[in-house]
Predict the structure.
Amino acid sequence: MITPSRAVRGTAAALALLLAAGCANPGTGSNRDDPTKPVTLKFWHGWSAPGEVKAIDESIRRFEELHPNIHVVATGNVSDETTNQALRAGGEGAPDVVSSFTTNNVGQYCDSGMWADLDPFMEKSGLDKHKVFPETLLEYSSYEGKQCALPLLADAYGMYYNKDAFAEAGISRPPRTMSELVRDAKKLTEKNGRGGLERVGFMPNFRMYQNSPDRLLAQWGPTYFDGEGNSRLAKEKTVPEFFRTTGELMKAQGGYAALEKFRTTFGDEMSSQNAFLTGKVAMHLDGEWRGLMLDEAKAEFRWGTAPLPVPDDRPETYGRGFLTGTVAGIAHSSRHQNAAWELVRFLTADTKQVVRFANAIHNVPSTKAALESPALDADRSFRTFLDIARHPYSTALPPSTNGGQYVVSLRDFAYKVEAGKVPDLHAGLRELDAQIDADTLQSRS
Amino acid sequence: MALSHAPALRRKHRRARLRTLGFLSPWLVGFSVFFAYPLIATGYFSFMHYNQIKEPTFVGLRNWTYVLTQMPLFGPALWNTLWLVVVMVALRVVFGLGIGLLVTKVKTGAGLFRTAFYVPYLAPPVAATVAFVFLLSPGSGPVNEILSAVGIDSPPTWFNDPAWAKPSLVMLSLWGIGDLMVIFMAALLDVPKEQYEAAELDGAGAWARFRYVTWPSITPIVMFAVVTGVVQTMQYYTQALVAGKLASGVSVGPGTVIQPGYPDHSTLTVPQLVYSLGFQNFNTGAACVLSLVLFAIAMAVTTLLMRKRTGLLSAED
């Protein structure tokens, strides 16, 4: 006879089994494959512009020539969200090799086990990562010592400026300090007859294209976390300086509300209606790829590139910038991880390939050898970004277990600050630290 | 005699039960697979740390504490959802009923009016939202151009202003009122004409006819509209997400993740937060807690409304 308690226990056990079955690991990968045997690899990446797709397809063709047994099926324009879902769902359609346009999520990829640890593969192949890749790039592609990604070209952020507008305003060179930036931005700002803005010198608002606060804050070189992984933004003297400067920039050009209203008239960042291309902003924070786009769009003005200005009291750091980049890795669920490693190694560590790909899409190469290669594009505007990438003061964001969650929190906070909704900045930063710490704790196993 | 019939009777009852179960089985399967199991699993995962890759680990009340006391977006998301439930549902019912009343009274060109009010409902939600964001764009949208031309110096910035973003979503919802209009129209046309004639003979004016004839007849339909409206609005997601993303002007590429709620989390709803937690941050436990909270609120509100409805109907009876 089944007693009620037995029935309850039986139901509970069955339920636990059912739930456990429902949450089993979606796919079990394998690194026991023979990379010399015929295999088809699925490679998901984010490039979508025709020139970029052509460049990556040519890279794959070169890889297939070197490895005739490996056939690569590439899928472009894939977002991190899509890749994340696919790797969690598993199945035959999931990719073997994955790439991401942001380094923000690397911590999450490594910590969650979603991307395979590449150190054993590098050891097997005799690839010394410290000799091949710059340390800053190794840092942003690993988490707590686990190298689950490798840099596949880097992005450096600097300034594009409109030389014609500079000449009209009587400015001889791009600003090098923050006070020069404020002064020049004011000079370059033009109003129309109705009191609205016609052109701004430098749009500091954080929702403007690439103007995420972490990118401009990099000019101050903040330390986001202490030795124990706790957020320390309230302890950073640089953060109030940074917000004071962006506030001064806004005030000098008409104020937050006027700038926000003007921003809503801008076209899409990657379109021909880009605000810098259409002359609505005279100085613009952007990545190295913009130069190629300005050439292709045949900009109707002369333009130049320069590092972003630095705080007045740290002139020795001029030339620094924010670094990030594309990263590539192997899906934890891939059953062809050794073959996948051959593709990752070719794309990330083969000097000739890295230089050709960097030249083709105007991105910064991500290996030491490629950065010094004479075959690298000698275009002057591009060289500015190579120098930023090599600059000893240039920094990247530190990885975190919950990906870019702390950057999102900082961004949300910055939106409030720029709108004048944070009366006590220091108290706000303390709350922000507490929030980042709570989010980090919540994401830990 | 009775004893000899007992086995046959039992067989008959068993057959009847099996038949009933047979007819019920499709629903039972659907209920178990798509409701009971997900609900139980949601409860289970609300006590687990689970990133959808590694095996879940038990963390007690950590997810609950995090969502209810430490997550700053929980408050705004809940407030926005409840605001939309109260304002949007109320206005949709009033507006839908008003339009329904108008189109049933129109004699000339009735078909044209009914079509004109119904057609917007057929527009896909994303397309309709894109159109509204374009129309209400503060810098270049035609609405503000017109408002400026007629002398309004500082027209609202609509989807770009935290104070106006939710009202803008309500306007979008009212534009697509066609579904409710049709339901109310059917209910209004169903009110017996002789009751109006009797009321008129008693000297009832338009308001008295509506109050004492129309309203009692359509109360069940109004309650249906309110209850389904509340449940739908609790799940409000697409329009708010699309409007926020478009109005923010932030470029979305393969490396970016859309953070819902622009501007200043004023359009962030609980379902968006559930998605963001569960499928962007892979914080399954917290997403499950939030889902359960939403479910509990929806159940409480619906139960309250259904009781009210029973009270109303019995009062009329």
Notes: The mean pLDDT of chain A is 91.
